[in-house]
Write a structure and sequence with these properties.
Layout: H1 7-14, E1 16-19, H2 25-40, E2 51-52, H3 54-57, H4 62-65, H5 68-78, E3 82-92, E4 100-103, H6 105-109, E5 113-114, E6 119-125, E7 136-139, E8 150-152, E9 162-164, E10 174-176, E11 183-187, E12 191-194, E13 203-212, E14 216-217, H7 219-222, E15 229-232, H8 249-260
Antiparallel strand pairs: 1-11, 2-3, 3-13, 3-15, 4-12, 5-14, 6-11, 6-13, 7-10, 7-12, 8-9
Length: about 260
């Protein structure tokens, strides 16, 4: 992004933007400490990449997801009526952090929300994220092409078991390198991926997924294992929203069943 360019304009044209203003410094320090506790408590056999939907297990996480300054930034991209779609501590440990294949988030999210292309991700760096430790790579402007074809990926080295159709060109990617408490915002329709982390340094980011409340949550199809939350403004799609003050262990149990089978 050029220094004089508006972040929203860059996002609309390229499908992503990087920003230096993350959380207030005290809030970020508390998030770092919270993450370290969760990371240290991973059980035997649990992969750091799999720290998904932590807000279902611990409402404390909404302290950062619903941070007013962060929502002010999100509002610039999707308007004043905002819902929380999901969150994920995406951590690649040193030496054996798994790669993420080329994909669009919207391909996976269309099973829960419609239109999935109107959602976005805020990727907040907890650790430095750079070429060496497997930072995100994007193909600029691919968010304009709608949801592309994906196919099965039978390779346990990767985080996902599906990937973008291999006939699609992913040449000339752009690296999204971030320092701690810097963040990127990317469209759910943007093509992106990341390399494995074979470095001596961990790479962790906290991803917070938001959508306009005009996006419909498919409660009848996904309500048994997922939930969205009203963050700001009012509902515009007839959605039912979760309570950010309570845990949802039944959703975690249902997701575990889906993952296993």
């Amino acid at each position: 992004m050029r220094p004089s360019e508006d972040p929203v304009d860059h996002y609309r044209q390229q499908g992503y933007v990087t920003m230096s203003n993350g959380l207030p410094s005290d809030e970020f320090e508390d998030l770092q400490a919270y993450f370290e506790q969760r990371f240290a408590s991973l059980g035997e056999g649990e992969r750091p990449e799999d720290m998904d939907v932590p807000h279902f297990d611990d409402p404390t996480v909404f302290r950062w997801i619903l941070n007013d300054e962060l929502l002010d930034t999100v509002e610039r991209f999707i308007g004043p009526d905002i819902a929380v779609f999901s969150s994920h501590f995406f951590c690649k440990p040193a030496h054996d952090g798994k790669p993420v294949p080329w994909h669009q988030d919207a391909y996976f999210w269309q099973r829960q929300i419609s239109p999935a292309t109107k959602a976005l991700t805020v990727w907040l760096a907890i650790d430095p994220s750079d070429r060496a430790n497997g930072c995100m790579k994007v193909i600029p402007a691919t968010h304009r092409q709608g949801i592309l074809g994906h196919g099965a990926l039978d390779d346990e080295r990767f985080v996902f078991d599906e990937r973008l159709d291999t006939t699609y060109s992913t040449s000339s990617p752009t690296l999204v390198e971030l320092s701690p408490n810097e963040m990127s915002v990317h469209s759910a329709a943007l093509v992106h991926s990341s390399e494995p982390n074979t470095s001596d340094r961990r790479r962790c980011g906290f991803t917070m997924r938001y959508m306009s409340t005009s996006v419909r949550f498919k409660h009848e199809e996904a309500g048994s294992y997922h939930q969205v939350y009203l963050a700001r403004g009012r509902d515009r799609a007839g959605n039912r929203y979760g309570d950010p003050t309570r845990r949802y262990p039944e959703l975690l149990a249902a997701r575990s069943t889906l993952t296993k089978g």
